[in-house]
TrEMBL record, chain A:
Span of domain ABC transporter: 5-242
Name of the protein described by the UniProt record: D-xylose transport system ATP-binding protein
Provenance organism: Nonomuraea dietziae
Alphabetic keyword roster: ATP-binding, Nucleotide-binding
Annotated InterPro entries: AAA+_ATPase (IPR003593), ABC_carbohydrate_import_ATPase (IPR050107), ABC_transporter-like_ATP-bd (IPR003439), P-loop_NTPase (IPR027417)
This protein's record includes keyword ATP-binding: yes
Gene3D superfamilies for this protein: P-loop containing nucleotide triphosphate hydrolases
TrEMBL record, chain B:
Domain of life: Bacteria
Organism this protein belongs to: Nonomuraea dietziae
Annotated TM spans: 37-56, 68-88, 95-111, 117-140, 147-165, 185-205, 226-244, 256-278, 309-330, 342-360, 367-386, 392-409
Membrane topology recorded in Swiss-Prot or TrEMBL: Multi-pass membrane protein
UniProt-listed Pfam families: BPD_transp_2
Protein name: Xylose transport system permease protein XylH
Annotated Gene Ontology cellular component terms: plasma membrane
PANTHER family linked: ABC TRANSPORTER PERMEASE PROTEIN YPHD-RELATED-RELATED, XYLOSE TRANSPORT SYSTEM PERMEASE PROTEIN XYLH
Keywords in alphabetical order: Cell inner membrane, Cell membrane, Membrane, Sugar transport, Transmembrane, Transmembrane helix, Transport
Length: 254, 419
């Protein structure tokens, strides 16, 4: 199977600090790829490079097997890549519909087409079996953590996107809400999207993911199928960059 | 002016609740949660008007009522522009003198160079746009805090004003069209025409939107709610037009003085246009978004710098119109046009009306309501015989009160999870 999204040999530095070294990463249609790594391993940086927030210093960016250039968030959005950030990036003073269409409002002529946007937002929420929100004209500030996460995820799938990247979607949630969000994440993959899940929580990773990619100090230690590895091996990859035959030798990927 | 209250409240609640009862309930909930919107301004207006009317019966005369509009015109218009900057959580301290500089450009081109009035008006507004562009670029691209940039502008424009007026001469305005803005009135017939167009247009917009939405199976406002809103607006607006159409000349035999001041339709037109821009266009949506969460907006692909620059351009551009109104009212431009209390009154108007100093919350309507409060205070205190000293102290206290209410409401809303 060919990956939808693939980056090869990505380098990224901030001034004198090189954060990503020769990173290769792929995401597949209908699968959840967990991106794991310790704090500062470069998970967020890699995601922001993929999302076009940071320009990459070197490396190839392939989408559907074609070489592409992503110069900004809009380019990534046009390819069908959506990122749900850890801090959700919602505007508290806007309602659910307004947030879901932020930056890509539907218009008829000069005027915003509120009715169409409302319908599309409603359809998307229904297709994801979201029933927890009272009204889609509610201000986001009045929503709970889980509901906000749901809105942020729904916003990402509204655009017939092909790749959805979730940055720590369950980090701030309670047990029940975590289960709900993970279920939603699984549903996204079952709909045929390529899902990338950044997580610190090994239970979450093993519960839903199909593949695991482990970053270690800015290098990709390994990208493996979840079924082929154990909990302990993944923890080892995260903490030392290698585990048996897997991972880096002397800090360089094999 | 409060006739427009019904109008704008409606915009806020229109999309949410289907019946009058539910609307009222949702509104009460919001107020309790700290989102008071225009409530303090409306209550303040009612209290102030009652007190002044009881203490000084002259306050209620048609002459004084008409004066309120011309007195509040400049401040209200500048406050409208400030709403755009405040929505982003920025401030423009230079808007007052920017309006003065634009008024001076008007006066110089009109009186000294003898250009036709429309060329001068265009020149004044372009000056405002240019000023906004410079301020906006400095804030957005260089990242200097808007407080500092516009404080510098406040000082510098004062100097520019002096240069334009050749170190303090007073340029008088003799052009009939410009003078008419703050000194002439619509004929009573035109006043009623304005009333019909305003109320009819508002009703049409409401009904069409409701029909469109219910045809698509979306939650729409019921006829009763629309009728209540349009009715309230019609009563208040009708009363205002009726009073303004009464004879208010002391000597009706010599000169007749009736009708809606021309500044009123100008303010209303600005209100409608800019409310439309803020509420119904993607640009307006993006202003709210940047004010609510600039980082989220950036990630959504919104050009935050461009939004910031355009907010400053709009603010100074509208301030130019405020300057033109001031020039018309004073029939001249002097080194203090747009100076002294004008800016703080305008900021006060926006904040009293319910625009948040923290960004993300506010409407153009707020400027009109707040402007009305300021005009009433200024006018009423004058009638009571208080001098500038007391006026300044009271207005300052009201501004502080409004900002305090804003800050407290925000805290409360945070606790209630509303904002």
């Amino acid at each position: 199977m060919n990956p939808v999204l693939e980056v090869r040999g990505i380098d990224k530095s901030f001034g004198p600090v090189q954060v990503l070294h020769d990173v290769t990463f792929a995401a597949y249609r209908g699968e959840i790829t967990a991106l794991v790594g310790d704090n500062g391993a470069g998970k967020s940086t890699l995601v922001k490079c993929i999302g076009g927030i940071y320009p990459i210093d070197a490396g190839d960016y392939l989408f559907d097997g074609e070489q592409v250039h992503v110069g900004g968030p809009r380019d990534a959005g046009e390819l069908g890549i959506e990122i749900v950030y850890q801090d959700l990036a919602l505007c508290d003073n806007l309602d659910i519909v307004q947030n879901m269409f932020l930056g890509r409002e539907r218009r008829s002529g000069l005027v915003l087409d509120e009715a169409t946007m409302e319908e599309m937002a409603q359809q998307t929420l229904t297709s994801l079996s979201v029933r927890t929100v009272k009204s889609i004209r509610q201000q986001v500030s009045s929503l709970s953590g889980g509901q906000r996460q749901t809105v942020a995820i729904a916003k990402a799938v509204l655009w017939n996107s092909k790749v959805v990247i979730l940055d720590e979607p369950t980090a701030a949630l309670g047990v029940a809400q975590t289960a709900q969000v993970l279920e939603l994440v699984r549903r996204l993959a079952d709909k045929g999207l390529a899902v990338v899940l950044i997580s610190h929580n090994m239970n979450d990773v093993f519960a839903v993911s199909d593949r695991i990619a482990a970053l270690y100090l800015g290098r990709m230690a390994a990208q493996v199928k979840t079924a082929d590895v154990t909990h302990a091996q993944v923890v080892e990859l995260i903490t030392s960059g290698r585990s048996g035959d897997l991972g880096l030798t002397n800090g360089v990927s094999t | 002016m409060s006739k427009l209250l019904a109008n704008d409240e409606a915009i806020v609640t229109a999309v949410r609740q289907p019946s009058i009862g539910n609307s009222a309930r949702a509104y009460t909930e919001r107020v309790r949660g700290g989102d008071m919107g225009a409530l303090p301004a409306v209550l303040g207006l009612v209290v102030l008007c009652t007190v002044f009317a009881l203490l000084r019966p002259t306050f209620l005369t048609p002459v004084n009522f008409a004066n309120l509009f011309t007195q509040g015109g400049q401040i209200t218009v500048i406050a409208m522009g400030l709403v755009f900057v405040l929505l982003l959580g920025e401030i423009d301290l230079s808007a007052g003198f920017a309006s003065g500089v634009c008024a001076a450009v008007l006066a110089v081109t009109l009186t000294d160079m003898g250009m036709p009035w429309y060329v001068s008006v265009l020149a004044a507004i372009l000056t405002g746009v240019l000023i906004g562009l410079v301020l906006g670029v400095l804030v957005a691209k260089l990242g200097i805090p808007s407080f500092i940039v516009t404080l510098a502008g406040f000082l510098a424009f004062q100097g520019v004003l002096l240069v334009l007026l050749e170190e303090g001469t007073n340029i008088s305005i003799r052009d009939e069209t410009i003078l008419a803005i703050a000194n002439r009135n619509l004929t009573p017939m035109l006043g009623w025409g304005l009333f019909l167009v305003g109320v009819g247009g508002y009703a049409a917009v409401q009904v069409v939107r409701s029909l469109k939405r219910s045809r698509r199976g979306l939650v729409a406002d019921p006829a009763s709610l629309i009728a209540a809103r349009v009715g309230t607006m019609a009563v208040i607006a009708g009363l205002a037009v009726y009073v303004l159409n009464l004879e208010r000349s002391r000597n009706p035999g010599l000169v007749s003085l009736t009708g809606v001041p021309i500044v009123v339709p100008i303010v209303l037109a600005l209100l409608v246009v800019w409310t439309f821009v803020l509420r119904r266009t993607a640009f307006g949506r993006h202003i709210y978004a940047v004010g609510g969460n600039a980082e989220a907006s950036r990630r959504a692909g919104i050009n935050v710098d461009r939004i910031k620059i355009s907010a400053f351009v709009i603010c100074s551009g509208i301030a130019a119109i405020g300057g033109i109104i001031a020039a018309s009212r004073g029939a001249s431009v002097d080194p203090n046009t747009g100076g002294s209390q004008v800016l703080l009154y305008a900021v006060g108007a926006a904040v009293i009306g319910g625009t948040s100093l923290f960004g993300g919350k506010g409407r153009v309507m707020d400027a009109v309501l707040g402007g009305a409060v300021i005009a009433v205070i200024d006018n009423g205190m004058g009638l009571m015989g208080y001098g500038s000293s007391v006026k300044y102290i009271v207005t300052g206290s009201v501004l502080l009160l409004a900002a305090g209410v804003d800050a407290l409401a925000r805290r409360r809303a945070a606790a209630a999870g509303l904002r």
